[in-house]
Specification:
Elements (H helix, E strand, L loop, with lengths): L1 H18 L5 H5 L7 E2 L9 H11 L3 H11 L6 E3 L2 E5 L7 E5 L4 E5 L5 E9 L5 E9 L5 E10 L4 E4 L15 E5 L7 E6 L6 E7 L4 E9 L2 E4 L2 E6 L5 E7 L8 E6 L11 E7 L2 E8 L3 E9 L12 E7 L4 E7 L2 E12 L5 E10 L3 H8 L3 E4 L7 E6 L4
Parallel strand pairs: 13-26, 14-19
Antiparallel strand pairs: 1-9, 2-3, 3-4, 4-5, 5-6, 6-7, 7-8, 8-9, 10-11, 11-12, 12-13, 14-15, 16-17, 16-26, 17-18, 18-19, 20-21, 20-25, 21-22, 22-23, 23-24
Length: about 400
């Protein structure tokens, strides 16, 4: 009787496994690094669809199955150009299925389907291939998965290998990270989406065997000086270097941009420090021929004061003796305070007039200006070269 019972359990388990024909990302994530994949008829130069089919045989997914089915039996409306198949619709889901063996790329994209994918192939100088596949599941918490394999033509197998994402460290805790496989070309791109600055891309170029970090790109944007005046497009200002500073030490980055020095004798860097204010980028501090950064300070908490001690004040002055105080809290600009000299009829200075832009009150702004400050905040940006992308004509 016990043998019969155990036989039933084994049979039910086998039926359950056979009924489950596809895997989800969390399951693949636990398996792919330990899975060597045999590539049937791989030969010396398998194309992207041959490697994708082998991956699907070992780690089947619904979305890859859809792409392979499209290759076998293209749906009505598919456009063919040589070996390239492209299906696109303009309906609610905006479905796009591309199979492009010539450029070593395939993808399934949709606004409504839970599962999406893209994959590509790089040729290695030693005769091997790199096969990468990105699997995306749209949930309340999206699940992104990148699998990276080396194909060996001698053994006709794919073995797991480290990708650029394995060596990537997210610079700040808040924000999201994704990656882009090249539809054309060979660059691998890591995309950083932050609530504190425009989208940043880290570009990795192909050297024939692996990807090497090349440069940073920052999405173009407009900014305003101290909450007032005209808007300026950042890409038109000649900025060459980018850095991030964490003024309050909580992991909330402020964006820094710097221009190239015009001469070795230039006294100080031309630079901006920026942060968001009401969804737009605004200057926190400016250093150029008209402005001088005077310092950054923690506001000292005092009894019955309108500040908490968690604020940081950036202090800039200009050649017209106007002072700009920008109050930062948790990475965002809380308010701007501008203090201008008051003059009499003869042009003599007789006092100062504060003006406030932001969420605070006038009394609060005056308190900030005249507050005792705690320790000075040292700012030492670690500059790296960058370029803008997405510039508007």
């Amino acid at each position: 009787m016990r043998k019969i019972f155990l036989s039933i359990i084994v049979l039910l388990t086998a039926v359950s496994m056979s009924a489950k024909t596809t895997l989800i990302n969390s399951e693949i994530d636990s398996l792919w690094r330990q899975t060597t994949i045999s590539v049937k008829n791989g030969g010396q130069a398998p194309d992207v669809m041959t490697l994708l089919s082998a991956f699907h045989q070992a780690l089947p997914t619904w979305v890859v199955g859809e792409v392979l089915e499209q290759q076998k039996k293209p749906v009505p409306g598919t456009k063919r150009n040589g070996t390239t198949l492209l299906f696109e619709n303009n309906e609610e889901d905006e479905l796009r299925i591309l199979i492009d063996p010539k450029n070593g790329y395939a993808c399934y994209e949709s606004l409504t389907d839970v599962d999406q994918m893209s994959c590509c192939v790089w040729r290695r100088s030693n005769g091997h291939r790199i096969f990468a596949i990105s699997l995306y599941e749209q949930h309340v918490m999206p699940q992104n998965l990148l699998c990276w394999y080396d194909y060996d033509p001698q053994t006709q197998t794919m073995k797991p290998e480290r990708s650029p994402m394995d060596d990537y460290q997210k610079p700040f805790p808040l924000g999201e990270v994704s990656w882009t496989l090249p539809e054309k070309g060979t660059d691998f791109i890591i995309n950083e989406y932050s609530p504190f600055y425009p989208t940043l891309r880290r570009i990795f170029i192909w050297d024939g065997m692996k990807h090497q970090f090349s440069k940073i790109q920052l999405e173009d944007f407009e900014y305003q000086e101290f909450g007032d005046g005209e808007w300026t497009k950042a890409s038109g200002e000649g900025f060459k270097d980018v850095a991030f500073v964490d003024l309050d030490g909580k992991g909330y980055p402020l964006l820094c941009l710097r221009k190239a020095k015009e001469s070795e004798d230039q006294e100080r860097d031309d630079m901006l420090i920026l942060a968001e204010f009401k969804g737009k980028m605004q200057t926190v501090a400016i250093s150029d021929m008209f402005h001088r950064i005077r310092g950054f300070f923690h506001v000292k908490p005092e009894q019955d004061a309108p500040w908490t001690g968690k604020e940081v004040v950036a202090y800039t002055s200009d050649f017209m003796h106007i002072s700009y105080y920008v109050v930062i809290k948790d990475g965002y600009i809380r308010y701007f305070v501008t203090e201008s000299p008051l003059t009499d009829e003869d042009g003599e200075e007789i006092g100062w007039e504060p003006q406030i832009i932001g969420y605070g009150s006038k009394d609060e702004s005056i308190h900030i200006i005249h507050a005792s400050v705690a320790d000075h905040v040292e700012v030492d940006p670690q500059w790296v070269p960058f370029e803008f992308y997405g510039q508007k004509e």
